[in-house]
Amino acid sequence: MAWMRIVRDASARLELAMLRGDLLSRMKSYEPGLQAAVDQHAAAVRDILGLTIGSAGPVELAAYAQGVRDAAAEHGWSLEHSSESDWVTLRLLATVSLTSADTLELPQL
Questions:
Q1: For residues 107 and 27, is the Cβ–Cβ distance under 8 A?
Q2: pLDDT tens digits for 17-30?
Q3: Cα separation of 6 and 59, whole Å?
Q4: Other CB atoms closer than 10 Å to residue 66's CB: what's the count?
C-alpha cells in the first residue's frame, strides 16, 4: 500500500509546513544565538528519533512535534503566548527545520 505511505508523508509535511509558518510568523526579532540554539535542539531531536525509532522522516517529525505541543499544553504553554526563546518554541523550530535538507532561515529583522 504505497499510496498510504505517500498520503501519510504528504499530510505530515503539510502539518510541519503549517507549524513552521505559524512559528516564524510570530517571531518579532532575531537574536544572534537563536540559530545556534535551534541547531542544538535539532541535533537532540535527531538523536532522540534515531535512538527510539531509527528514523526521522516527516511522519515521525510531525508526531514528535505534536507530542511536544501536547505535553507543553498540559503545562499551560500555547503557541499564541510563547516567546521566541522558550524551550518548546526552540524545540518546535528545530523539529520543522529537520523536514528539509536546508537549514531553517530565521527572519533578519
A1: yes
A2: 999 999 988 877 76
A3: 10
A4: 15
